[in-house]
Amino acid sequence: MNTPLKLTDRKRQAIVEAAIAEFRVSGFESTSMDKIAATAGVSKRTVYNHFPSKDELFAQILHELWNSFAELEARPYDPAAPLRDQLLDLLWRKMAMLQDGYFLDLARVAIAESIHSPERAQEMVTRLTRKEEEAVVWLRAAQADGKLAKADPALTPHMLTGQLKTFAFWPQVTLNQPPLDAAMQKKVVEATVDMFLAYAG
Question: PANTHER family annotated for this entry (predicted)?
Fold first, then answer.
């Protein structure tokens, strides 16, 4: 059973969600702490008690976005398991994250701000690059096992996840399209895996 959040934790989360909403509408520079406080339904003093600056509030948004990725725990390559099943499992877990509404809101804010202020999002880019390396480790293990003979470990992880993002991330983030329905998710995941295996298998 989930433990109810304390009042102070609920206020902190309300502030983060209000910041996400305001940053999406107005951008980082044009959003004031006053506006965030009003949207969150708390006093400006409460906002500053939790986040001494707007930069720290934005850092919290990036932190939560990173945690969304971190929750996708790396599963090591299993030579005893069918390759296609392992790839399907990997992409289904990524699909669940990409179609989560809260994750998409976080991503919209982070991407928009990285365009205007690349240095502000540099830490996130560095972290995500390290996270992508886990897919490289998986692919190299599959190659060492005699599978995926044509796979380029530096290229194929991007090919694999890029196909997924074409349908299940970028249209939602940039064009506000709705998440894919269950049937379309299945179609995209399975087609992506099969096309990948046809190329690299």
Answer: HTH-TYPE TRANSCRIPTIONAL REGULATOR RUTR, TRANSCRIPTIONAL REGULATOR TETR FAMILY
